[in-house]
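Incident review: delayed structure delivery

Summary: a single-chain prediction request sat in the queue longer than the usual turnaround. Root cause was a stuck worker, restarted by the on-call engineer. No data loss occurred. The affected request and its eventual output are reproduced below so the record is complete for anyone auditing the incident later.

Affected input:
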Amino acid sequence: MPGPRRGVEGTAMRSTGLSAALSLTAAQLSLHPQQPLPALVQAPARPALARLTHHHSGAIMTPPLDASYAGLERETASTIRALSRLPVHDFDAGLVAAVRRINPEDAAGHLTALTAAGLLESPGFQELRGALYRFASPELSEQILELAHIAEADDDEVHNVLGWALGWALSAATAADALVTPSHHRTLGINPADLHHPPQHPVHHADADSALGWLTVQSENLLALVRAAPLHGLDTYAWRLVYSMWPWWRAANRTDEWIELHALALTRVGHDPSAGELAERHLLGTYGLGLRMNEDPIALHTFTRLREMASQAGDALGEAQALCELGATHLQRGDATEALPFLNRARAIRAEQGYERGVALADILLGQAALRLGPAETSEALRRFGDARAALAGVDAHDAARALAWLGRAQLQAGDFPAGESALHAAVREFLDERSPRQAARCLEWLGNAAEDSGRISEARAHYAQALTHYQAVNGADADRVRDRLARLA
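Output delivered after worker restart:
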């Protein structure tokens, strides 16, 4: 048996994936190689362990758990109890530092010690998070609380632990929002320092790519924290975290969670006196976007309500936004004629208010309506998309790419294949630069359509294959559609 620390760590790593009892026994053997195995297995259980054996049928060998927990230093024991209170799927040193109010180096030491004791396991390492940890078995979090004689819910403790986790998560999410989608962040200007649980060691994102990457690798934990927040009176964090995750919502396109958690945020924002009506309206608008992406007819009712709220608040630009969303929803439903009055009114309001970017965004939608109205309106569509591209270039890279993509599609529809394909290839590059893989995939799918229609089957397959690669990461329905196209061309 190697030296004590090396033996503990080595045995803990080799026992990853075993049952909790076996992992804990292995760790205890490493800690106490001189102790006979029967002594570990047959050691008398304390009252807490008797309860564990009674309530947890899978806890066959509870004495090793007792020994592992009893052997922890006080601060490390406090850490495992705090982790037992969290709803997250895994842990890293940054999160532990936040909930324990210690520095990340000490947090990493606690995680190492808990892994060596067989209570945690390390499934791997992520560049943006460092070493990852999780409980060695699903039931361990409840068993830890039993051992600590605090199995009954301590609302104050849960509130504080969860509050520090949410404060840390919100700080990182708002910083990511500011880097990736600065105009969205400025809309509400959420500042985590104004709340009760600002982190001592906040996450620092190197750039926009790292920021979106962090949201992506932490997404399951963030969703779990949002769901848990209202259960413990932390409404102020629930809606703010949903709002600040906008770059991830836009990139991941997970509409079921989008709708679920924006609905939750809308129910909680009303319980937060510091929120204000503007926050509710923005959440309602984003909720409507999720409904529209899911082709849910409730989207029309949602945007109608949004328009009413903006009108009552005397917010002309807010009303214009709702009108645009109503027009876009009618377009998605295939009714360009119904969409036009909403879009024209939205454009007029924005022009009156001097909102040039908003005028350009309305032009993108008006161009789409023109395309749907048939060949006679193609020249109108080309003009709208061209004007929007010129207005957005250098102002909003993502929406400038949208204008270019639609311009390319209109050029293809007008029969100008070289110009249309060139524009779509450029749009693909711009969307990828803006971390919008689904939009890039849609452009590649359009390129595949154009190649297939003109008999260039090999080229069509190549475009569809590239589109499929991007779609697979963000949207199963889109991926299935392109996969079917590829199968037909085989």
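Verification: Residues 1-25, 34-63 have pLDDT under 50 and may be disordered.
Action items: add queue-age alerting; document worker restart procedure.
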